[in-house]
Amino acid sequence: MSGRIALPRDGATLLATDTGEGPAVVFQHGLGGGETQGAQTFPPGFRRITLECRGHGGSGLGERRPFSFEMFTDDVLAAADQAGLDRFFAGGVSMGAAIALRLACRHPRRVAGLILVRPAWMFSAAPQNMEPIAEVAELILEHGTDKGRTIFAQSETASRLYHEAPDNLSSLLGYFDRPDAKSFARVLADIASDGPDVSERDAAALDIPALVIGNEIDAVHPLSTAYTLAAAIPDAVFAEITPKAHDSAKHFGELHTQISSFLQSHSNARSLIPS
């Protein structure tokens, strides 16, 4: 089964992909990603629904401002409704992980399990690890892409990431190359300064299985963030995998293995029946 869902929201059409068979997993991309990232990150052999958030992929920006985790999470839940899902696994990478965590805490009857891949947010808005993204957004909004890229390339942030987390630096430079960079910079700025509005108490109250995956050599998605979230969720398993910066093929292979094993362990009928 494979199909596209078109979802009208606030003057925009949002696009979602519904592909594969089996227990449903709503799996969200990261900031600046889209369906391609969802397909790359998520293993085959399961049903995956990925909504391209506003301003991402083929989805429009819509009329509402500011962009927020509340907005994106509501959109994802609307896509799950349109796909006919009552109870599902929620997951995602980076921003998608924060959306999944918010979904589970705000709508516990809907979410049967969590998959948090390289989370970038914990329990506060505008975490320090989001500062490089906020910096890029500000440069694009103030100076445009060409001048902004030049300033950023010569910055202390770029120099630090070149040595500590080259994969992050590559992603950040990619924001300057987007054809919609000027309009998308507003999305970057708003999301980098926001958070899922979930407390440690909310996480501790989760009564579902969870898988939290992190890796080293990643300044935007610190391994400590993944570890802290796994420790805060009672029924969570923590897995550390090979950094993408070391070996991309090994990174995604280990990622797929971890997610597949988790879903096979917990995809029983009982977990998908609302309690």
Structural overview:
The protein has about 280 residues and is an alpha/beta fold. It has two domains: about 1-125 and about 195-270, 3-Layer(aba) Sandwich (Rossmann fold); about 130-190. The chain contains eleven helices and eight strands. It has helices at about 35-40, 70-80, 95-105, 130-145, 145-155, 155-165, 165-175, 180-190, 200-205, 225-230, 250-265, and strands at about 1-10, 10-20, 25-30, 45-50, 90-95, 110-115, 210-215, 235-240. An eight-stranded mixed β-sheet has the order 1-2-4-3-5-6-7-8, with helices on both faces. Helix 4 crosses helix 5 (about 145-155), helix 4 runs parallel beside helix 7 and helix 6 (about 155-165) crosses helix 7 (about 165-175). The longest helix is centred in the C-terminal third of the chain and has 19 residues, at about 250-265.
Mean pLDDT: 95
Topology-level CATH name of the largest domain = Rossmann fold
Q: Main sheet: which strands, in order across?
A: 1-2-4-3-5-6-7-8
Structural class: alpha/beta
Number of domains: 2
User: What share of the residues lie within helices?
Assistant: 40-55%
Task: Report the β-strand fraction as a percent range.
Answer: 15-25%
Please state the overall shape, judged from the principal axes of the Cα atoms: globular
Terminal Cα span:
28 Å
| Assembly classification | single chain
